Amino acid sequence: MSDTLPAPLGLFGGTFDPVHYGHLRLAEESMTHLGLGGVRWIPAGQPPHRGTPQVTAAQRLEMVGRSTAGNGHFSVDPAEVLADAPSYTVHTLTRLRAELGPAQPLVLLVGADAFAGLPSWHRWQDLLDLTHVAVSHRPGFPIEPHSLPAPLAEAFRQRRLDDVGGLRTAPGGRIVTFAMTQLAISATQIRKLLANGLSARYLLPDDVLDYIQTHSLYRNA
Question: N- or C-end of the chain: fewer Cβ atoms within 10 A?
């Protein structure tokens, strides 16, 4: 019966280089908008879609742990950092599906830009069957099929779900969208500030900034 399925679990993967308030706000608002039971943060160990991060995977994992420690609805999955292999989302989802069981509704959280690039992801069509996908966007700028690559636009039309309550009725396979509060913060911006000896305070949690300063991360050599 669909009403016996557990609450959907949000999955939030990324490089988090470093984690900041924009990430935290997206995870927090997704629980309200989507009715999630919690959010599992999954730092990438070896991100395949970008260059090698300036800091180690273990350091990025530590920063995510520090930033999420005060929220009982957040958990951190270290498996991708500990694995000696590229962090492909479809492999992560396959692992989590085996770990959590076939009935657990999973919801992959992505931003609008990342969603538009989904066809470049490894086995992207397979991941749509392993999880729901929730796409965050700026208020007033909804996701429009005509703005997406043709294969993704077709998948979006076929799988789009207007009522987020439907996330509870199946373990995966649907796409939802939600508007979230916009914070003009980026990890790139933070790294540039730190590299130039400028303040990044109030862009990321103090515990994370203290860790960065203690270990002299993101400084120009």
Answer: C
